[in-house]
Sequence to fold (237 residues):
Amino acid sequence: MVKIDLNWALSEAQRCLLCDDAPCFCGCPAGVNPKRFIRKLRFGNIKGAIRELRGVNVLAGSCSYICPCQNTCMGKCTSEKLSEPVNIIGIQRAICEWELANGMVEPESSSGTGAKVAIIGSGPAGLACAAELANRGHLPVVFEKGPAVGGMLRQVIPDFRLPTKMLDLEIEFVKKLGVEFQTGKDVSSPSELLKDGFKAVFIASGQGASKRSGLNGEEKNGVYQALDFLKEAKLNA
Fold:
């Protein structure tokens, strides 16, 4: 099994063809252009590679652990026709783990508009929205009904799939952008937030319940839905 670290990533990055019309870019649902951060890495600009990633996808580190890359960027890689696809997601993970080990690359400041925007929910959608708004100079406030920020990323996904320390780093990065988080806040009326001076409200409540199978007996004692099981396992780990 390949050990994913920066030395490996520098070697793997040499395999990238840096395609002009990179199909891997078209395959990324988050809009990350692998050619751009891989090129920066090849020239030794690690911090530039991190800024390239986080400028597009604030959860680049988390995605590097849980993204189904064979169906996205790597599934589109031109190098697959020559030998095998470039391990794009591995390179991305190595870059983000380097940041985790060496300290956060501080975000660049942006001019402010002063417009307050409320975001209900602190899962992936809420965090991504908050980061984008902050980058545009607005003042996002994220309301989370639970005791900690992160939504399903924190509550459901086990540590062996997504290390909590990576999620914590990315949430701290979002805070550095100027995003305010309020935990233990269950917002029942979004319209009240507009009356409180927020210019807009983004509802990012997420997928809070498992999809039912429709099988007989699924409501019986001892039968657990997927998300309920994962939440309990994470809570009691």
In short: The chain has a mean pLDDT of 93. Strands lie at 116-120, 139-144, 180-183, 200-203. Residues 116-203 form a domain with the FAD/NAD(P)-binding domain fold (CATH 3.50.50.60).
